[in-house]
Fold each of these.
Amino acid sequence: MDEEYDVVVLGTGLTECILSGLLSVEGKKVLHMDRNEYYGGDSASLNLTQLYRKFRPDQPPPSELGRDRDYAIDLVPKFIIATGELTKILVHTEVTRYLEFKQIAGSYVYRDGRISKVPSTEMEAVKSPLMGLFEKRRAKKFFEFLQNWKDDDPTTHQGLDLDRDSMKTVYEKFGLEAGTQDFIGHAMALYLDDDYITKPARPAYDRIILYTSSMARFGKSPYIYPLYGLGELPQSFARLSAIYGGTYMLDKPVDEIITDGNGNFAGVRSGSETVKAKQVIGDPSYFGAGKESSDGKIRVIEDGKVVRAICILKHPIPGTEDSDSCQIIIPQNQVGRRNDIYIAMVSSTHNVCAKDVHVAIVSTIVETSTPELEIQPGLNLLGAIYDKFVTISPLFTPTSPGTADNIYITRSYDATSHFETVVDDVHDVFKRVTGKDLVLKKRDVEVQE
């Protein structure tokens, strides 16, 4: 390891692998290291043996669950929005040639004690139990307003200014009920809480349009998901990096981040070997997450926690028309919380578990001292649970941009069930590392379903 690199990347989570691939394409000499023996870091997909070894080291997996190799269970559940930013990166880098995708069958929202499908067509909207007859008319006018909006045509604005008026003002203009605001804000715009309502409406408008255009792309739901689990995504970007000369080392302990006399990054030590590089990028666990780092700087701060329950089911989720996959969002108002609860469910049709098995992951931001009780409303919707693995993960945020000392730290994965926040982090770190914006080429390549 005597060579000198432009960038050392630590951890093979999706964020780190996308950055490693993009920087390799830019012509940078990249070395990528991970202390784990598998790709994906916190966003890995594990087989049965790895799953039980991680959560219950003293218990072998039950034989009735089938073959080890049939499983690829995600540690962090997320779906890809069909016309979202991650799809644009996949298409821009042509990583789509290493992956196959399948659509998620339905998107649901919990309201008034039951789950209902988020309407994907006008026909579904008319039949939807989410709204009464008069509310449906008001909602139709609201969606027509959004679809017809043109920045340069004041006749489409109906007296509203998306950059100045709050989303509350927009909802009130169309007289939408609180329950309708809930499902638009949380199941379509995918906000985690209600803070967005008092802010200018433009970001919410962009998010709703993204959702409806993704829905229009495939029908049924706006989400797609890679066959064989989310762990395929980091591996595909690792392959991209390797094509452009990137070097990968799995199962490689990272013992020390070396800095020079001025506190700037100089290299990484693994055992008796040291590698020199100009910059380092890595996930928070490599930079003293949760403890003071060796040079006296705390490089990351804890910014809350996420509780996740990985549940193995022998049946689809009741009330989802026997869907082989779905997302269910429980808006916080419906269960007296500050943050939404997310359920993501996949099955053997996605090549992530044995036949007749379904994997559902329930997650939310922790608000109390009893996190497992907080996801109970989600667990209650699943029916009989065959087995369950609960994790509570701190959310870490870097304390500095890294531009001063060349140490660039990514963020932890949040509780959202989609990748848009991950891609925000990719754009942010890419700009700090290279000094320029990540510009994605527009290509006319369809993501194959």
Amino acid sequence: MSTSSSQKLLPHLGFVLVYVLWGINMTSMKIGGTEWDPLVFNGLRFASMIPILWVYTYFYYRSRSLQIDIQLKDFLLVCGLGILNAVGMESLLQYALQFSNAANGAVLGRGFMPVITVIIALATRQVKLTWRIMVGIPLALGSVIVIVSGGAGGFHIGADTFRGDILLLMRSVMGAVYLIGMNRLVSKYPLPLLISLEMTAGAAALLPFVFYYADTSYFAAISKTGWFSLIYTSMFATALGFSIHNWSLGRLGAFKSSAYGYLLPITAALAGFFVLHESISLYQCIGGAGVLTAMYLVQRDRGRSPVHTTGAATNSVKL
């Protein structure tokens, strides 16, 4: 394989790795994450990464003799995306699942995100509609529904899940906004700076809830399994996962990146099979084959990618 082909393949492999990490995280959350309040869990998750991320960012800039400099509008954007991610996506997902179920979460909370992303991308002329997109996105969404429809607690919409389902759809909209917003930044600034700012803003938004809800007795009641879940989510699913995610995002664009979200039900099912010894049903096998076919169609699409522009560094913030 030539160097050029390898470089083109790397962001695709990056997204596969990301969704393997996030699939394992679903199992981790099943094992220990339910012990935590969503706001406390995510507040600690984001805050625990801040020292590591900023130390790495400092040495990244120092080794290259660079100065941390970011336009004010981009600084506000990345901080807003950090708050959106921490509060509007991660915490909202855990909260919504209290009123719905995991199957609806996979379809409505994540499955609709690529659909919304492609609608926005088409409206802003970032991509053009092709037959691969017209076939691939509905096929992927339908396949996810097949995956989660088998057995008890499968995908369904009714009065008993309505409140949670609305919140899950809101989460998909926020996810699409996050992808498109971050896609504007990853080609302009070094990734360590963006991740550090994003996580810091997310932590700042959630830490007040940590101080309000959690005390010594709260932490003492968390088992070793619960702490392990927090460590895995912080180190691997968050710090490593979002770093690879946003690096790959800058090379594929928001639309093609969002389509990889359909891999999560597959990687989550595989993680449950190997770690929790859960069974894999015929529904999951059929749906998984459909998702992989859809991924092939979407990623082979030759539609126009987003065009990045780099403005002059006026009204900048120096850190």
Amino acid sequence: MSYCCGASMVGTKGTLKHYRTQVHNVPLLFCPVCRRIEVHYKVENEYEILAEYAHGDGATEIDFQDYVMEDDDTIFENCVNRESEDAFEIVKRQIDISLDLLMVAKQMNDEKWQGELKRRLAVMSQRRSRLQHNKSGS
């Protein structure tokens, strides 16, 4: 599993810009708390090579899937969530994981970690409230 600021990162595919070249369908991981995005570690080297070659060739757009074969079934198998899942369910699962970690932090008497987890829980609780409001307002 990939983590960022204590939350498990969500697996998805997206577009990244490398100088003037847009690379589509890149396997990505993003943090639902701080919104950090990174190329999935299993294809990071391939992305860097492809993006550099495409930029060197002057391509403005390329599709990662056209050049790099990855198994869609296994690339995100270590992710707790995928972007294709319901956003409300993703946030609920992230809250559950953080609450479990908070119990561990309390047992360890790690006040710094407890504070970080409480801040994370506050962010995710706000996001859950917005999603719930949007769901009921629709």
Amino acid sequence: MSILPPRITVALSVYNGERFLAEAIESVLGQTFEDFEFLIVDDGSSDATSVILQHYAARDTRIRPIIRENRGLVASLNQLLEEARAPLIARMDADDIAAPTRFARQFAFLDANPAVGVLGSWTTDINEVGAPHPVAAPDHPVTHEDFLAAIDCGLPLLCHPAVMYRRDIVRSVGGYHAAFRHCEDLDLWLRLATVTRIANLPERLLHYRHYEDQVSSRHATVQQVGAAVARIAYHERLAGRHDPTAQIEALPPIEQLDALFGREGIAQAVRARVAPGLLYSRSGLRDEGFDILLRYIKDGGDRAGLWRTVGRLILFGEPARAASLAVTLLLD
């Protein structure tokens, strides 16, 4: 190992990721920018993940595997943040593919723009077999000013595994917060937005994979509720009010959010933000997201398209929930 620290630490956490892990690792080892260490936390996997990691660690001394019991993604990301030796951290996920010039392009930009603390990139969206995956969302904002405008419009901000950031800046705001499980990255970007400049390279430097079993699909409701609370906390900070989410380990149920923030209307605002995003979510309509949707309707929320959601629930094999939604639409 070099006496001098590497210029980049690549930070990857994986849990039961044997399916795509080798391809992700190969894409990192194939970078044109080679001065990096590669930290990989195996967060208690029960599949062949640890075998794959040990195989690659034996091949390339830049790889430093950390194989331990399961502690969750937030704990793993904060461990990677603390163990990194480089001033710049390049995030990477076990199911994505980095373009060969990704690190070179991001390092050069951050080196030339010291005021930028977080730099993402545009992505190419792929499915589980690597074919194009259609996405309706716009590309991520390029400038910091566009980034701030995207916050206000509720648009996508950064693709987490495409990000490279300055380690000290992320540590200065406390790293990843455990309360925002499954949307810990969004909460971090919103906290960083007022202390550093954030940008995206308008280059497609990561192939971002979509598939049914990924975290964002399995935990859609928890993710959307957390994202809504993170955005409210951001505006609380901007208004000079206390952010109560900074000191908690888990978000309370929606019904307790008014008490947490010390004023009325927070829970209703969260439901109003979350409910429209659940209308096409198979998992969201099958879990606690359905109750959020019903309460949103009873609070006087917009009913546009909800009769189509009744039909969608029938197609999803949820006739009882379809009937419950229909009754709510007729009576409330």
